[in-house]
Input
Amino acid sequence: MRAEAARESLKSKGIRLTRQRQLLLDLLERSGKHLDAEGLYRLANQLDPKLNRVTVYRTLKLLKEGGLVDELDLMHFEGDQHYYETRSKQEHAHVICLRCGKVEEFFGDPLQKLRRQVEAHFGFQILIARTEIGGYCAHCQVMREQEMAAAAEGKSQSKPVA
Ligand SMILES: [Zn+2]
Ligand SMILES: [Zn+2]
Output
């Protein structure tokens, strides 16, 4: 999102985009990853050592309330951890590997189609849509097969399963 648009969006909610807030928003935008609060703090602190954790947490809350940032739990792969990304990106689904935690972003027509179908079906006005898909990535499918084979072998030799 352009700095101007972000500023306007926050202003309409009575929130001022201070320099530190702008810095955090820029970092989220540029990282292209799904950062948690701690990860964002570490990045921000390198650029502005005066920026503390409390500011990062407060700012994330403000940006979320201002509709500039989305909070994700990514299938709770890491427990209660939450991740943040800017809303400026085109809508996408998060595809999460439940074994290694890798997160892929799926951009595609089916999401827009789903949106239109839900709106038509329920006469619903969608403000936000979030799609999360959990499973095993190609690498982890192979790993799991090996692990299960090893476990089965262990059992047949009546060794205790670790
Ligand atoms: Zn994986
Ligand atoms: Zn994403």
Q: What stands out?
A: The domain at 90-162 is CATH 3.30.1490.190 (Dna Ligase; domain 1). The beta strands are 35-36, 69-72, 83-86, 93-97, 103-106, 131-135. Residues 138-156 form the longest helix (19 residues). The mean pLDDT is 88.
